[in-house]
Amino acid sequence: MKHLVFTAILFISTISFAQETTNTTAGIFDFESEVIDYGKIKHKTDGNRVFTFKNIGNTPIIISNVKGSCGCTVATKPSEPIMPGKTGKIGVKYDTNRVGGFSKTITITSNASESKKVVRIKGIVLKSEEASNNSAVSVTK
């Protein structure tokens, strides 16, 4: 019985060590910010923003897919691998024809240590009359 328990512990330890070794050699996302806050923006204004990240891992990051949580959020991925130590950008466009508050996610699928990474956008699109009456409208890029 003791031999069986020892073998099981050894097996689990070996699997854990192998997974840790694999993860430490993968590319690693280091985002400047994982949330883009549009703030209060005018109806039908520019909804384009950019998530910037650095690969602080040891191998290139290859992004296979980026997907917004709904059709109002369109994301674009880099076409080339992001080499270790280099910076990459993920574009996102929110449909500012929709009035009101929003909070949307973008899911990034890649070969990085975190194979599925979720970042977020949020903000408030003001009605046209609210925007003209509100002198404190801010646009954050």
Within CATH, the superfamily carries the name: Immunoglobulins
User: Remind me, CATH topology?
Assistant: Immunoglobulin-like
Subunit organisation of the chains: single chain
Label the structural class.
Answer: alpha+beta
Helix content: 10-25%
Bulk shape: elongated
The CATH architecture comes to Sandwich
User: What is the count of DSSP helices, taking H or I runs of 4+ residues?
Assistant: 2
Provide the number of structural domains.
Answer: 1
Question: Main beta sheet, described?
Answer: 4 strands, antiparallel
Q: Let me know the average pLDDT.
A: 84
Number of strands: 8
What is the beta-strand fraction? 35-45%
Which radius of gyration do the C-alpha atoms yield? 21 Å
Order of helices and strands: HEEEEEEEEH
Poorly predicted regions: 14-22, 135-141
Q: Order of strands side by side in the largest beta sheet?
A: 1-3-6-5
The CATH class turns out to be: Mainly Beta
Q: Span between N and C termini?
A: 63 Å
Detailed description of the structure:
- With 141 residues, the protein is of the alpha+beta class.
- The chain has a single domain, classed as Immunoglobulin-like.
- 21% of the residues lie in helices and 42% in strands.
- The chain is built from 2 helices and 8 strands; from the N terminus they run H-E-E-E-E-E-E-E-E-H.
- The strands form 2 sheets. A 4-stranded antiparallel sheet has the order 1-3-6-5, with no helix packed on it. It has a 4-stranded mixed sheet with strand order 2-8-7-4.
- A hairpin with a 5-residue loop joins strand 7 and strand 8.
- The longest helix has 23 residues.
- It starts with a helix and ends in an 8-residue tail after the last helix.
- The C terminus is likely disordered.
